[in-house]
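User: quick one
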Amino acid sequence: MDRLKSTFVNKLLVSADDISLGRKHKPDYWLIIICGALLLIGVIMIYSMGPALKITTGLSGSFYTSRQILAIVLSAVAFMITSYIPIPLWKRYYKLIVLAGLVATLLALVIPVNPAYPAHRWVRIGSLSFQSVELVKLSLVIWLAVFLSNAIKKGTIKDFRKTLLPLLIAVPVIGVIIAGAQSDLGSVGVIVGFMAVMSYVAGLPLKKIAIIGGIIAIGLIFAIIAFPYRIARIEAYLHPSSNCQTANDYQACQALVGVGSGGLFGLGLGHSIQAYGYVPEASNDSIFSIYAETFGFLGSIILLILFASLFSRLKNIAEKTSDSFSSLLVIGVLTWLSVQTLINIGAMIGILPLKGITLPFISYGGTSIVFSAAAVGIVFQISRYTSRVVQAEDSSANDSDRRQLNGDRLNGRRVRGAYHPYPGSRI
Amino acid sequence: MIPQNINTKFGVIRRIHLWYGLLMIVIAIFGIRLFYVQVINYSHYKNAALSDQLKQYQIPATRGLIEALDGNQAVPIVLNQKLYTLYADPKYIKKPDQIAQKIVSVIGGNISTYVKYMTIPKLRYVILAKKLTKQQSNKILSFKIPGIGTQGQDYRLYPEGSLASQVLGFVNSNGQGEYGIEQAMNKELAGTPGRVKAVTDANGVPLAASKGNVEVPPVNGDNIVLTLNLGIQAQLENILKKDYKSTKSQGLSAIVMDPYNGHIVAMANYPTYNPANYTNVTNPAIFENAAVTNAIEPGSVMKTLTTPAALNQGVIKPNTTFYDPAHWIVDGFDIHDIKIDGGAREQNIASILSLSLNTGAVWMLMQMGGGRIDKKGIDTWYNYMVNHYNLGKPTGIEQGYESAGYVPPPNMSDPSIDLRYANTVFGQGVQLTALQLAAADSSIINGGTYYKPTLVDEIIQPNGVVKINKPKVLIKNVVSPKVGADMIPLEENVVKAYLHGGFGFMSFPPQYIVGGKTGTAQVAKPTGGYYKNIYNGTYTGFVGGNKPQYVVDVYNIRPGVQGYAGSFAGQPVFADIVHMLINQGYVTPKTN
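Assistant: Done. Structure below.
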């Protein structure tokens, strides 16, 4: 099977792509362990909130728990699919997924799933419905990885017209559609975040990114002024109140109160009070607040460490990939998940304005989990081909050697103690 | 080529590390922030959470019922009824027209009015209608309209309508008793609300799971059985209504009292009101039970108190005679008889009462002193008024806003003290409520025991324990039993004199004893002095068989009749009440 696949991959490589794969080895199972742990925490939280969710939403707790378990099953399927798709395929057919993201967004805008809900975020396919923005995030990460790695390869990474201009056009388009029509400023923050970081890592000069950043900042200010509720959220952030009933932003205030009232050890599983209608969106955007109330400071730190270790694994994979496309892809996923996590938790602990996005793998809701898992699945596939040491940038001349070399060259120096299965065959 | 690529790659690694480092720093900051929020500032946030989550509720106690005697049976005259307030939360109102239509189909009303209230922006609580029945409330709730709800509230229900309204008072929208017995016995009636202290969900529903919940059940209010006889009360009110018109009165009060225990058998005023609609009353004076709140100068009815005082002092006998000069000059004022009966001549105690001789009353004051108006006489009379007849202070009856009345202090340094006190013996310059007069006369008629006048027969506690309100003796030996017995024929004589004087309505069947005294009181101007042509007509008297059974007092405020107000406006009301009591069999006739 493996044999068959690698032949298939080789064919692809030979035919069109210039992706250099390292030698295939064991993937990074830590990804599965960490994400699995996060998903487990999420489903336990949602199960423990059952009675509270029944009171606040009228739907039974088992409804939420079973839906979340279904989402986890779907995310496992998504993970398994993406973790077996060879990386060159993404590069080759990236246009398809970008197109899918575009179509999904258009569908969401044109055919509202629930006419009462004005934010056009949802797409329905058969009995399944999902939030188009999650697909957009995935497709954008892939597109950017393709775009930037091509620019690196062509040496046009610092070319204003060829590299920076398309990005400068893309950002406001995305901003208008997602922040404007879908009123999802949080997701725009995530997307702009990984666009900036990926561009920066790819080698775009910091100065130019800063210019883009300035443009984005101006856009953000307009986006905030255009929607007064965002001003309220910013004001709430600047002027926190100890009485949530009169607070500028009730949700942010109650979220922080939930975190703080957890104390060192928390109230214990199932004993959250804030879940009983005090914190809005307790199972979704505000789940960290309930988690922190339930498990206290110690639990919060454990969760932060779990996320940090996920990011650490992703970082390790990113720096050990054998090509810039893979590297940028991993960096994109890393930034997507980390910025989303930080925006979410930052709002819960009162150091960022509330943005209304989910906490990856923890929050209730299938779309975020499935697409996050799919993204990690791609990284999982990439992790099969990392080198133990940092690789040199691709060069078609070295392609055939790389599998044997395992990249012990760094600035021409030999890395001591590096794994070296075939020392004799070095060039 | 290769070195450049390597550099590029190297740059990638550096930049990845830079980004990763930044990420870790932010996560570390988050960790520090969490420590600050969850550990250092824990108590702040815990308190903030509890200020929202921990709620204390009162569980309202059910207010006690008020009952009164119908024969020997206590029947409720004030009940409770749970009615519902219909409210809307405009935030959740969609399609107000359709909602209003549904509401109209249940409780009627105007669609556009409901729509107007339901669509008031920014308000979260708008009352659409009050006093819905349980059925109406359930019907509306069954529509399950978001933003529409009802709230139960206890209302007083008055099966007898306006009966005894001023004695009862009412319960205001805050659940506080106002006026009457509702005010005076608010504490007993209200009971003690229970309380719940609990961590609740955001809607205020206590969370069963949370520890440390406190729940104290409410103690319901006591039921009160009044001394009122419902039959007499109802007919008394009819009489007052009728006589209010016939005497062109501006306010009529009457009391029927049992002189042997202080029980108020009936007590009413006219005009009156229906406590169920107390909010419609424009003049709050109507809320007052004037029989206990309105102290006036009572006029010559006071002589029923002066005479026994002098008798009890032994300075006169029932058959004492004296020469009446028909006027006295006191402090330069001419005190003369309102009713001139042949001028100066020999008079006796009975004629002082029957002719209502002011000069005779002043003569009695002189007898209580050293044969003239002096300190001894004034002090003695003051002592009787305050310490025997309990005037100048509230009787303590279970009614709101009881008046203390007024007794002038025996201040001998007052240059006009002699005139002041000369006036008091015939009921001017002294203020009494109808109740104070009835209670004082009761204490004489019954042979010298002042019972605290009361409206409460029994208090029934929520646990079923019945506390009988025993007669409470406030003052003993008000006068001697002999004086009390002497006063009965003296007052009977007054009634007979009026009958013979042409007041045919003062004719009563021979198997009953009826006695009394009229009073025509000048009305003081607020600015000092008295009105020329305005009088209050008062009457105090009794009816019984072998002995007086009821003391009956009437205050007729500013009647519009010709002739003396006491005779022509007070006395007929008294006669109507006594006839009613006799005719309806409420009075036990003489046994032979």
